[in-house]
Specification:
- The structure is a single chain.
- The protein contains three helices and seven strands.
- By secondary structure, the protein is of the alpha+beta class.
- It has a domain of about 100 residues: Immunoglobulins (Immunoglobulin-like, Sandwich).
- The chain has a seven-stranded antiparallel beta sheet, with no helix packed on it.
- A hairpin with an 8-residue loop joins strand 3 and strand 4.
């Protein structure tokens, strides 16, 4: 005499299959999360965190100057290879609206999500408180710009902006 399986004998296997799907998806997400982006946005994060009070003091000194700065993308065009030729412009005015001349301005452009495309640039004075630089960027999209402009004996102007390259 053969024994017949009861109706619904396979119902527990539905739960097992469901859990296997959940584990597989979680495993895939874990792999993608650890393999694609390291999460490290700055080098020596601990040391920079400890120097945060100095950063606050520098920001207060910059605010005391009363300088108004306008920084952004002045022009952009697509090259034959798909890269972008961009011109970045900085305009600096003092508290009374007069142009600030004689600054040494440096710029670091970084791709937030892709390493290896960073640019260190020096802006040239164009007169009337305007500083500019032209460069070729390999990718369109969002770039982070960190700008430092200053002169001897004065606190530097520090800007951090996100720019969108079309």
């Amino acid at each position: 005499m053969t024994r017949r399986r009861p109706d619904g004998w396979w119902y527990p296997w539905i739960f097992v299959a469901g859990f296997l799907v959940v584990f597989a998806v979680n495993g895939a997400m874990l792999h993608l999360a650890t393999a694609t982006f390291s999460g490290l946005s700055v080098e020596k994060a601990f040391e920079r965190g400890n120097a945060y009070n100095a950063e606050i003091a520098a920001a207060r000194a910059q605010a005391a100057l009363g300088w108004q700065a306008d920084f952004g993308l002045a022009a952009s065009r697509i090259e034959a290879d798909g890269s972008r030729r961009v011109r970045l412009r900085l305009s600096v005015r003092d508290a009374l609206g007069a142009p600030v001349e004689g600054l040494a301005a440096t710029l670091v452009l970084e791709r937030p999500a892709v390493k290896g495309h960073d640019r260190d640039l020096v802006l040239a004075a164009r007169g009337d408180g305007v500083y500019a630089v032209e460069t070729v960027l390999p990718l369109k999209g969002q770039w982070e710009a960190r700008l430092v402009a200053g002169r001897a004996g004065a606190p530097p102007l520090r800007l951090r902006r996100r720019i969108q390259v079309p």
